[in-house]
Amino acid sequence: MPKVPGLIKGLGVTLSTMLRTAKEGSHTIQYPHVKEAPPIRARGVIALHEGNCTSCMLCARSCPDWCIFIEGHKELAPPRRAGGAPRKVNKLDRFDIDYALCMYCGICVEVCPFDALFWSPEYEYSEPKIADLLHDKRKLGEWMETVPEAPELDAGADKKGKK
Amino acid sequence: MSVLLAVDMPYWLQTILRVLGGTVAVLLPAGTIVYVFLFKMMSFMQSRLGPMEAGPYGSLQLFAEVGKWLQKEDLYPDRADKFIFKIAPIVVLTSTFLLVAVVPFGPDAWFTNFEAGVFYALAVSSVSVLGILIAGWASANKYSLLGGLRAAGQLIAYELPMVLAVIGVVIQAGSMNFQEIVMAQNAGEIFGWNGIGNPYILTQMVGFIIFMIAVQAELTQTPFDMPIAESELVSGYMTEYSGFRFLMFFIGEFATAGVFSLIAAALFLGGWGIPFAWFGWDSMDSIDNWMNIVGPLIMFTKMMVLSGIIMWVRFSYPRFREDQLQKFAWKVLIPVSLLNIMATAILKVAF
User: Fold this and answer.
1) What's the start-to-end Cα distance of chain A, in Å?
2) What DSSP string runs through B15-47?
3) Model's pTM, two decimal places?
């Protein structure tokens, strides 16, 4: 008997939710017809800025799933000053992320010292074949276009990075 | 069936008509309940829209689901008792079809009309326990067996308050015939005022509440869904069933909800009738013929209201534990319904 008011309240919650859904619409959206706009910092897909990558392998080594594959070689570049020795630069041959394995932890993005990896909120890249979820360098580079501008820092926030 | 008898149809034609009518009376409420309540009301209560793609507002979703089930392979476990395993869902569904046979839909629109209708309905409704028990046993699966045993214990425990709750109505109406109970409610009067007849929900409120709780338990709907508790028993006695046989269990569950709502409507809400005082009717023979058309619609409306309440409770409440469930039946519902019978009997003699 002392539980009766709680029981009635429970019925009221479901009833009011039903009426609100009928009047104001649901919290869900009809996905293929209407596209959801994810929050700007949503973890949809990882984009690669190839020019920044030095194939240092930090991301591949920190990946818990070992889903990042990097191959590179060293190339000689013209010296900075005239008469100097030619510089050695790392050239990226292969940079693949296997999204069938990726668990979207974001450690690779965090660990990258040269700002070569970015989160993009894009999420529509499912494939009929699981092997097609392996995104190569070119495809990861294309995701760069969907990376949103970094939001403004809060006022008085400690600015890190290169001055 | 006097309208039909007047045309003097041969027996086989009457039989076919009754079978067709019974099928419609079972499947139409089941389909409507599944779409309106299970698909739409539950979704809205969870702030989502439910099926929207098949047909306008997903209204053809049910046909898609049935088509899916019909395509599936009819599996049975290797060590199952195959004959028993196969007939178990048929037994459950048969109980529903037998149950609808005594429900009156109008002055002449009934399938059978015999004196001990209430007794028959209560007796036949417990046949489904057999189906569930043998389904659990024949599956050769420990979860199914546990589910079947729980179901048997629960259904037997809640059969009693259901019977006892109906006895109050039977005492008040002085008859076990559904037609006479409906008549008594619509021809009745409340202290001389006959504007709304005397639906027994007013005098038998306690009985009505107990009946609906017992129905909820008989249907193994959610506060009482220990037998099919999916987090511990997979799906209870239904675990091993697939395809068409699962569909039969599914139809049985929701068709029985509809038929029990029809019976509750006939017993407590005045059934197919409208208060006879409105049109000056005084007996069964003076009722106009159009009630045979309007009556089923009234019954359907009342069925929708009652099954809506059943489903609403189902979507709102968490599950009882097994001991709470048994305690509630034996220590609360049965004593209260016995008191209700005593009070009804005393008041019946006093007035």
Assistant:
1) 69
2) HHHHHHHHHHHHHHHHHHHIIIIIIIIHHHHTT
3) 0.79
Residue B194 scores a pLDDT above 80: no
Q: Rounded to the nearest 5 degrees, what angle is found at the Cα of B156, between the Cα atoms of B33 and B269?
A: 45
Q: Within a domain: residue A97?
A: yes
B→A interface, C-beta within 8 Å = 41, 43-49, 52, 312-313, 315-317
> Residue A159's pLDDT band (boundaries 50, 70, 90)?
low
Q: Any residues with CB less than 8 A from the CB of A23 and at least 6 apart, and which?
A: none
Instruction: Compute the mean pLDDT over every residue in chain B, rounded to the nearest whole number.
Output: 84
Query: In whole angstroms, what is the distance from residue B277 CA to residue B279 CA?
Result: 5
Range of the domain at B163: 2-350
Tens digits of residue pLDDT in B248-264:
888 888 888 888 998 99
Angle between helices B61-71 and B243-268 (to 10 degrees): 140
Residue B334: CB atoms within 10 A of its CB come to 19
Across the interface, of B45, B47, B317, the residue whose CB is closest to A27 is: B47
Look at chain B and report how many structural domains it folds into: 1
In B, minimum Cα distance to A32 occurs at B53
**Residue type at B21?**
G
Dump the DSSP string for B246-293: HHHHHHHHHHHHHHHHHHHHHHHS-TT---GGGTT--SGGGS-TTHHH
Q: Give the span between the Cα atoms of A143 and A48, in whole angstroms.
A: 7
Q: Which residues of A touch B46 (CB under 8 A)?
A: 17
CATH of the domain at A87: 3.30.70.3270
- By Cβ distance, the residue of B43, B48, B312 closest to A11 is B312
B48 vs A contacts (CB less than 8 Å): 21, 26-28
User: d(Cα A91, Cα A54) in Å, to the nearest integer?
Assistant: 7
- Which residue is listed with tokens 């409208």? B274
Give residue A126's domain range.
45-146
B318 Rama sector, left if φ>0, alpha if ψ -120 to 50, beta otherwise: beta
Gap between the Cα atoms of B177 and B110, Å rounded:
12
Residue B51 has pLDDT above 60, yes or no: yes
| A8-60: pLDDT as tens digits | 888 888 898 888 888 888 888 888 888 888 888 888 899 998 888 888 889 89
Residue B278 has pLDDT above 80, yes or no: no
Number of folded domains that form chain A:
1
Nearest chain A residue to B312 by CA distance is: A11
CA distance B306 to chain A (A): 15
